[in-house]
Amino acid sequence: MTDDPLPALTGPVEVVGAGLIGTSIALVCSRLGIEVVLRDASEENIRTAHGLGAGRAATDADRPQLVVVAVPPARIADAIVEALGRTDAVVTDVGSVKAAPLAAVTPRVGAADLARYVGSHPMAGSERSGPLAASAALFDGRPWAVTPHGSADSHAVGLVESLVLECGAAPVRMGPTEHDRAVARISHLPHLAAVLVAGRLATAPVEHLALSGQGVRDVTRVAASDPALWQQILEANSEAVLDLLAEVRADLDALMTAVAADSGPDLVEILARGNAGTAAIPGKHGGPARPTRSVFVAVPDHPGELARLFGDAGEIGVNIEDVHIDHDPGRPVGLTELVVERGSAERLLAALESRGWTTHR
Ligand SMILES: NC(=O)c1ccc[n+]([C@@H]2O[C@H](COP(=O)([O-])OP(=O)(O)OC[C@H]3O[C@@H](n4cnc5c(N)ncnc54)[C@H](O)[C@@H]3O)[C@@H](O)[C@H]2O)c1
Ligand SMILES: O=C(O)C(=O)C[C@]1(C(=O)O)C=C[C@@H](O)C=C1
C-alpha cells in the first residue's frame, strides 16, 4: 500500500452473487450503513440475502461505486465483463483463482474498462454455500489478496483495499500468477488432502466411525465443500496444483518406505517436517505464529453453559484465540476446545478446574 489515503467506500456497493461470500460482504457493508444492491441468478438467494439484512435487489437505475463479483469461478469472467459494460464502477471479484479470469476478461474489454477491474480473494470461507451460511464476521482478521494487473488504475486498487479494510480483513497485494501459486499450496493442496482422507471414511464400518475424535474432524472439515465449486477452482489452477501433487506423490512414496521399514529416524524426520510446516503458518492476524495450545473442557449440553464457560475464561483473564465444539453422540455433554496462547494454558486449566469444570489433560 502507498501512504496516500485510500478512497472512501461510500457506496452503493453492488454484489453479483448473493451466496456465502457475496452475502457476507453485503452484510458488512449494510451494517456500516453503506447501501448494498444485490444481483443473483437465483431470485430466492436475493430474497434470502435481503431477509438477512444484506441489501435489496438491484435495479437498472442503480449507479454503484463498486461492483463485487462473487459468483462461481466458471462464471466470473462473464460477470466481470458484464459489470464493466453496464456500469462505470470499480469492479472486483472474489474468486479463488486470479490469472485465468484476468486472461479471459482482458481481450473482451477496452483499456479504460480494464483499468477499473482489480481482482481480489478473501482467505476466509466455509465448507457451506449460499446466503444462509453468510456472516458479517467471516473476514475478521483474515488475509485478503488484492491482485492488480499491470494497467490497473490506482484509485481502483485503493477502493478495493478500502473494501477489504471495511470487512475487517488485511489486504495483501500480490500479482495474479504468484497468488495462484500461493493458494495452490495453502488452500488447494490442503483441500485435496482433506478430500483424500475423508474419502477413506465414506465406506468405513460404523463401529470404526463411532470412535471419531477431534483429529479426524480437524483434518477433514473442508472436504464437505461443494464439489462443483472445487472442480472449477482446481481446473482454473491445475498447473500449480499438479506441481504440488507430484511433490506429495514423492513424499507419499518416502512415507510408505519409512513406515514399512520401521526405520525410526526416517519416519521421525518426515513427522518433524510436519511440525515445521504447521509452525510456519502465521498467526491469524499475520506476522509470526504465536504458539498456542488447546484446552479441552466438557460442557453440559444445556442452555447457557457455553456462555458460562466463556464468561469464566474472561474472568480468569485468558484470551480465546479459537474455539471448536464437538458433540459427543449419545452423551449429554459436548467437548469444547479452547485454543489459547501456550503460556496461558496451564493457568486456564487450573482455574477452570477450581471452578468445577471437567477438563481433559
Ligand atoms: N467458499 C469459500 O470458502 C470461498 C472463499 C473465498 C472465495 N470464494 C470464491 O467466491 C466465489 C463465490 O463462492 P461462494 O462460496 O460464495 O459460492 P455460493 O455458491 O455460496 O454463491 C454463489 C452465488 O452465485 C450465484 N450465481 C451463480 N451463477 C451466477 C451468475 N451467472 N450470475 C449471478 N449470480 C450467479 C448463485 O446463485 C449463488 O447465490 C467463488 O468464485 C469462490 O471461488 C469462495
Ligand atoms: O475455511 C474454509 O472453509 C475455506 O474453505 C477457506 C478457503 C481456504 O482454503 O482457506 C477456501 C477456499 C477459498 O478460496 C478461500 C478460503
From TrEMBL:
Any one GO MF annotation of this record: prephenate dehydrogenase (NADP+) activity
Superkingdom to which the source organism belongs: Bacteria
Any coiled-coil regions, as ranges: none
EC number per UniProt: 1.3.1.12
InterPro entries: 6-PGluconate_DH-like_C_sf, ACT-like_dom_sf, ACT_dom, NAD(P)-bd_dom_sf, PDH_C, PDH_N, Preph/Arog_dehydrog, Prephen_DH
Catalyses which reaction(s): prephenate + NAD(+) = 3-(4-hydroxyphenyl)pyruvate + CO2 + NADH
Record-level GO BP terms: tyrosine biosynthetic process
Keyword line: Amino-acid biosynthesis, Aromatic amino acid biosynthesis, NAD, Oxidoreductase, Tyrosine biosynthesis
Short name of any one Pfam family annotated for the protein: PDH_C
Protein's pathway: Amino-acid biosynthesis; L-tyrosine biosynthesis; (4-hydroxyphenyl)pyruvate from prephenate (NAD(+) route): step 1/1
Domain called Prephenate/arogenate dehydrogenase: residue spans: 11-289
NCBIfam families: PRK06545.2-3 (NF005111), PRK06545.2-4 (NF005112)
Family designation: Belongs to the prephenate/arogenate dehydrogenase family.
Name of the protein: Prephenate dehydrogenase
Protein source organism: Nocardioides ganghwensis
